[in-house]
């Protein structure tokens, strides 16, 4: 009986997939950012410079709203469909979402979204 249980454990443990170093890095970054109260929100795509001073002013006010809620925008570039990066970003969000809700209260994302959408 012990041999059967031991064999099952060996099979179970050998099937365990290794965690990506990027996921570990993002998990550590999440804990560091929570401690520093500077959680990142990730964006993708090519960041374009503002077209005029009005757009620059709007971007600056949007950044100020994000910072009020403890968020900082970080662009991850033009990478689309990178499963490892997606898994790492999801792990980061999973950890930081709990902190942000505790910091900002329930419904904070909707409040922030309204503030950003009301920018002229």
Describe the overall structure:
This protein has helices spanning 2-15, 21-36, 53-68, 83-104, 108-117; strands at residues 39-43, 71-75. The chain is mostly helical and 120 residues long. It has one domain (21-118). It has a two-stranded parallel ribbon with strand order 1-2. Strand 1, helix 3 (53-68) and strand 2 (71-75) form a beta-alpha-beta unit. It is globular, with a radius of gyration of 20 Å. 9% of the residues are buried. The model has no long low-confidence stretch (mean pLDDT 86).
What strand order characterises the main sheet?
Answer: 1-2
Shape: globular
Number of domains: 1
Report the span from N to C terminus: 72 Å
Instruction: Tell me roughly what share of residues is in helical segments.
Output: 55-70%
Secondary structure blueprint with pairings:
Blueprint: H1 2-15, H2 21-36, E1 39-43, H3 53-68, E2 71-75, H4 83-104, H5 108-117
Parallel strand pairs: 1-2
Helix pairs in contact: 2-4
């Amino acid at each position: 009986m012990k041999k059967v249980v031991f064999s099952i454990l060996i099979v179970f443990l050998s099937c365990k997939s290794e965690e990506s170093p990027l996921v570990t890095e993002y998990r550590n970054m999440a804990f560091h950012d929570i401690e520093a109260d500077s959680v990142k929100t990730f964006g993708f795509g090519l960041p374009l410079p503002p077209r005029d001073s009005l757009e620059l002013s709007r971007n600056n006010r949007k950044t100020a709203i994000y910072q009020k809620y403890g968020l900082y925008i970080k662009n991850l570039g033009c990478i689309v469909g990178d499963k490892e990066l997606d898994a790492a970003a999801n792990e980061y969000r999973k950890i930081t979402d709990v902190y942000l809700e505790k910091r900002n209260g329930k419904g904070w994302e909707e409040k922030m979204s309204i503030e950003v959408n009301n920018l002229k």
